[in-house]
Each structure stands twice: as structure tokens, then as C-alpha cells.
Design goal:
Length: 330
């Protein structure tokens, strides 16, 4: 069971107007809410793991879908948790702190291979701040997601550099209005691939100091209903970049999303009703941050984000976001 509360303004929604949330607190409006309320059971010597209850599809608690250890080192939600386009193309596929009823099964016949699938109630209203995580209805369509993953050199006795490759697909049920048309289409679907790989050690293996790279690609090919049919991200994380700062890390990343051409035609056609409408083309986020482990339970992460085409329009000026992420653990 978990609880959370957000407070203050949402920088992306209230100030910049970009699509990729600048910080984790941007993904949910201010207010308290119930988050995770679930039961997890492992069977057959931990080869089968089952989870049911109020869940999100991202990996804040336990290993869920489309995860990489490198994603959590970033402040921008374009990277953090899982590739953002999965949420954007499938409203109702909720991520922390919003949760919904769901069930997930994960089968790992060996230490380096697994398959995983989940099904969830995909009602976007469940995640509204006014519901405080207490809307237990089942009014939404179904959202289903599946993933196959390969792990390399992650065991305690492995000597080579570790890495992961994950392939997945998702589908949102129900009918949605098609862009630039009066017709409806039967749901949305998409595919993703992500990989990460440590490329160099910066000290002895037991120190954990290393440099790793990652990349993700999400495609939602039906442009008539998917607002962002193409998304990719890539980056580099250096753990313990300096011998005298073994617990610090440096993160550098780029995330790009391309908007649907059908959505853009619809927006252009509606400009006569609202001349301020800005047709969406693409959005790009660049992040550079450095985390300072000041005490065993205190980390400060100053960073900068360059936001190009905020909200997807080339007519919107580039924005620069500067901030400090503070993490206190106990």
C-alpha cells in the first residue's frame, strides 16, 4: 500500500506548455491520493510472479513494463520511469502516482529471460486528482500490454558488462474518434523496443562505477487515432564518474516525439475557429544533470533541460528549465 501528495504548481502545464513533463510532480495535479494497493505472490521457486490490485504499468514498485535502470536517473518524465509515449498514445494506461485495477503475470524460466503480460482498467478519470485514488469503479475499456526481455551478465558471478533488451506491445480497447474525420476507430495499439548496455567500468566491479547507454523506440502506427506515432529516446549515465565521488552520477539524454499528421490536419482545419491553435509537429527534450550524494540518505541533483518546440509547435520559442531535484531516503 502507498500514498502520495503533490503540492505547488505544475511547471509544464502552468508555465511552459510542453508535452514531456519537466518533473515527476507535473504528471499529477496537487493533492493527496492513494497509490499502490496490491498483492504480489511468487510461485515455483520464484519463476512465476503474480500481482493484482491497484497498479500502474511503470516500475516504481517492483519490475514492471518498459523499464531500464538508467531511466530513473533523469528528472524529465520523457525518460523517467518508462518511455512517455506509451502513456500519451493510450490514455488510461496509468503511471505512478495514478493507479487502477489490474493484474500482471511474469514468468522467468531462467535468470536471463522472461515474458510478462498485464491487463488493466483504462479509465482516465480514475487518475483525476479529485478522485484521490479512491475511484474503484471499472468503467473504462481494457488496456493490455505484453513484454519479452533478455538480460545479459546480471548474475552475481558475471564478469562481462551487463545489458538488457526488451520488446513489447500494447493495445487500448474501446472506440475513439479519428482525427480529421467524423468516423471512429477501434482503439489504439503500439509497439516498443528498448535496450541498455554498460560500455565501460570506471573501477573495480564491486564499486559499481560504470558508464552505460540506453535507447528506446515507441511506435503507434495508426496515425488516425494515435497522437504521437513515433517517439525515441537515448542517453548516457555515468555512475561514480570521479574516484572521490563514487555515489554520484551524471545523466545526459535526448527524447523526441513526432505528432500525427492526421492530428495536425485537424488542428489546421480548426484554426478558423481558434486562430491561436498551433498545429503540432514535433517536440525535443535535452537533459543534462549531475547528482551529488551528500549523505547516505540525501541526494541533490541540479540539472538543465532544453525544450525545443514546447507543445509540438515550431512557432513556440525554445525554453530552458533549470532546477534541483532533492531525494531524501530513510
Amino acid at each position: 500500500m502507498g500514498f502520495s501528495t503533490n503540492f505547488g504548481s505544475q511547471l509544464s502545464q502552468d508555465v511552459v506548455g510542453n508535452t514531456f513533463p519537466i518533473q515527476s510532480s507535473d504528471v499529477a495535479p496537487p493533492g493527496p491520493r492513494l497509490t499502490t494497493l496490491s498483492y504480489t505472490q511468487s510461485l515455483f521457486q520464484d519463476s512465476l510472479n503474480l500481482r493484482i490490485g491497484r497498479l500502474s504499468i511503470d516500475s516504481l514498485y517492483g519490475e514492471e513494463f518498459a523499464a531500464s535502470r538508467y531511466f530513473r536517473q533523469f528528472t524529465s518524465v520523457a525518460f523517467n520511469a518508462i518511455p512517455f509515449a506509451i502513456f500519451y498514445n493510450a490514455p488510461g494506461a496509468l503511471g505512478y502516482p495514478a493507479t487502477t485495477w489490474g493484474a500482471r503475470a511474469r514468468y522467468a524460466p531462467s535468470a536471463d529471460f522472461y515474458v510478462m503480460a498485464g491487463i488493466y482498467n483504462a479509465d482516465p478519470d480514475v487518475g483525476l486528482a479529485s478522485r484521490h485514488g479512491l475511484d474503484f469503479t471499472l468503467n473504462g475499456p481494457a488496456f493490455a500490454i505484453g513484454e519479452v526481455g533478455w538480460k545479459r551478465n546480471l548474475g552475481p558471478n558475471a564478469t562481462a558488462l551487463p545489458g538488457n533488451v526488451k520488446l513489447g506491445a500494447f493495445v487500448l480497447g474501446g472506440e475513439v474518434p479519428a482525427f480529421d474525420s467524423s468516423a471512429t476507430a477501434g482503439g489504439r495499439h503500439g509497439f516498443y523496443v528498448l535496450a541498455d548496455q554498460a560500455i565501460a567500468r570506471l573501477g573495480a566491479k564491486e564499486e559499481g562505477r560504470q558508464v552505460g547507454i540506453f535507447g528506446s523506440l515507441v511506435t503507434a502506427p495508426d496515425t488516425s487515432v494515435s497522437p504521437m506515432p513515433l517517439f525515441f529516446s537515448t542517453g548516457l549515465v555515468a555512475y561514480g564518474p570521479f574516484p572521490n565521488r563514487p555515489r554520484d552520477f551524471l545523466a545526459l539524454g535526448m527524447a523526441y516525439g513526432s505528432y500525427s499528421s492526421a492530428l495536425r490536419r485537424e488542428q489546421q482545419a480548426l484554426k478558423w475557429l481558434n486562430p491561436s491553435t498551433l498545429p503540432q509537429v514535433s517536440e525535443l527534450t535535452l537533459e543534462l544533470s549531475y547528482a551529488l550524494q551528500l549523505l547516505p540518505g540525501l541526494m541533490l541533483q541540479p540539472g538543465a533541460q532544453l525544450l525545443i518546440n514546447p507543445g509540438g509547435s515550431p512557432a513556440t520559442p525554445t525554453a530552458l528549465a533549470l532546477g534541483v531535484n532533492a531525494v531524501v531516503s530513510f
